[in-house]
Amino acid sequence: MDMNHSATNLTLDALKSVVSQALLGKFTAVFPKLFKCQWKTYEGQKKLYANFSKDSVSNMSGRKFCVGGNWKMNGDQKSIAEICKVLSDAQLDPNTDVVIGCPAIYLMFARNLLPCSIGVAGQNAYKVAKGAFTGEISPAMLKDVGADWVILGHSERRAIFKESDELIAEKAEHALAEGLKVIACIGETLEEREAGKTNEVVARQMCAYAKKIRDWTNVVVAYEPVWAIGTGKTATPDQAQEVHAFLRQWLTENISKEVSNSLRIQYGGSVTAANAKELAKKPDIDGFLVGGASLKPEFVDIVNARK
Ligand code: PGA
């Protein structure tokens, strides 16, 4: 009797779900005319989609928050030991991936001091495994000393060391093939933003990555407007969200809906404990890449921005 009863309930539930899906999901497709005013124009479609993504998808994106610290060329054994102690003692949100981008020479040192729940990243790696490339470090070497991530394409590599989109993409391809996870950086300069070229620039940088990356599972994209890096001039949450939403649309159109939904996009550029919470509320911001503040105890609050 009980079994019959629960079987009936199951059937009823299944029926309810089919009917509600048909009503909710397929309604616009089945009765497009009812939505004519909004669906008639591309603008209308975009508005509907924007509302949909705000209301329904944002808080259940399923993308795990991911915060990277980029120590750049800073620190020595003493100060690195101190930061590692702060991070080891802290209560870090278990729902956030944490990665520390450490100068290569201190990678093993930091790895040994940090809990294994915190990942360690190189800040650069060359595009081949070994050979006559004086001064370079390969993904295989990073892995050998305990790193599991690498930051590639940072604006300082692009601007100071003249790394091209193509070289960065080749580095990403090789690092992924070697089993490292990649934080792939992109971002426009102030000049490019003021010329209204932000979307064009980030799309070009994404295109270069897309030519070399087949599987995006181990990639996190870091959108870092160059004018916000190290300047104390953070993008507003709306400015950042606008570019992140554009990137998701670009991914849908150029890679796939699945990658667009699952790829994590960090924001970077003067993130501090004071602005992280507001930025973290935006639906397409899935974490941060943090420079200056990652050298200070406030990094803990940034990691916990969604807590
Ligand atoms: P910033 O640096 O947080 O000091 O602005 C960010 C970065 O370069 O990744």
Automatic annotation (TrEMBL):
CDD domains listed in its UniProt record: TIM
GO cellular component terms, semicolon-separated: cytosol
Gene3D superfamilies listed in its UniProt record: Aldolase class I
Catalytic activity: D-glyceraldehyde 3-phosphate = dihydroxyacetone phosphate
Superkingdom classification of source: Eukaryota
Pathways involved: Carbohydrate degradation; glycolysis; D-glyceraldehyde 3-phosphate from glycerone phosphate: step 1/1; Carbohydrate biosynthesis; gluconeogenesis
UniProt keywords, alphabetically: Gluconeogenesis, Glycolysis, Isomerase
An individual GO BP term: glyceraldehyde-3-phosphate biosynthetic process
SUPFAM superfamilies cross-referenced by the UniProt entry: Triosephosphate isomerase (TIM) (SSF51351)
Enzyme Commission designation: 5.3.1.1
GO molecular function, one term: triose-phosphate isomerase activity
Subunit structure: Homodimer.
Family according to the record: Belongs to the triosephosphate isomerase family.
Protein's name according to its UniProt entry: Triosephosphate isomerase
